[in-house]
Amino acid sequence: MARKKRSFGKLLALFVALVVVFLLVIALIWYLAAGRLNEPTPVPGPTPGPGQPQSQPASCPDVQVVAIPGTWESSSADDPHNPTFNPKSLIANVTRPLQQQFPASRADVYTIPYVAQFSNPVALPPDGQASYNVSRSEGAKRANDVVAGMHANCPLTNFVIVGFSQGAVIAGDLAAQIGADKGPAPANQVLGVTLIADGRRDSDAKPIGPDPDGVGAEVALKGVNLPGITMTGPRGGFGALGDRVNSICAPGDLICTAPKSAMNPLNIPGSLAALAGAYGNPVHSLYNSFAVEQDGTTATQWTERWAADLIDKAPTPAHS
């Protein structure tokens, strides 16, 4: 009997070990399939020097507006100059008026096309969307490449950067790299940046309108690294662009006003579920009517007027 019990115990231990290995393999496959966060690698940025040209090709715009839509507001195949994937895209309330005000020679208004999704990390069965890591990585690369390409071909063109929601995270990250002289264009050629509902909101940008308590969801959940979702924490400032970055955040929007207690171990599961659902909540979707000034000027109206003013006052480079 003793031998039989020992044999049974060994078999049971082997079975448990196999189950654990199987579950670890499944978890690893899930983690890898969900996608890792791949942001553009910071490199020493271009800086003006004695060799700075005095003119640029006639095809170059004086200013390029780089607009990055939020979650579910874009697709990888959308037309950057006439996006139609989501006709109700919030960022379009900024870009369309700018296109109507300025000829393309003065302002190239470029809306970054990317997958713009956020798969719910706790959805069973999976919801079939691209993960946040995959989406954010694609958006970041495309935004970086657009600015790098414009600066390489049109070295005197200045930039205005705008982002909403997931697009604000991408736009803010791009601004932080440029401000640290590790981005695709010199900081002195970025006229300004406005981030609406920034998931990495901290105290390092000028608030426009209310300045509610809380921080961006990625700051509150710093260090959380699950399949397809990596919370990267605060940026650590915008460097040389620190005086040119604006932040708009509505009270009650969990994307940009997450409670700092979200990282309490008992709160993490609920925090992740709340984050996944926050993109569709009423507060987050109403920036087109959210007033940031006493006269009723809304977030998108303010951003459009701010960008138009920067374009109006921007230098007019010589063309050859």
UniProtKB/TrEMBL annotation:
Keyword vocabulary terms for this entry: Disulfide bond, Hydrolase, Membrane, Serine esterase, Transmembrane, Transmembrane helix
Claim: Mitochondrion is one of the keywords in the record: no
Origin: domain of life: Bacteria
Stated family: Belongs to the cutinase family.
Membrane-spanning ranges: 12-33
Species per Swiss-Prot/TrEMBL record: Antrihabitans cavernicola
The keyword Signal belongs to this UniProt entry's keyword annotation: no
PANTHER family tied to this protein: CUTINASE 4, CUTINASE RV1984C-RELATED-RELATED
A molecular function (GO) term: carboxylic ester hydrolase activity
SUPFAM superfamilies with a match to the protein in the record: alpha/beta-Hydrolases
Annotated protein name in UniProt: Cutinase family protein
Xref: SMART domains: Cutinase (SM01110)
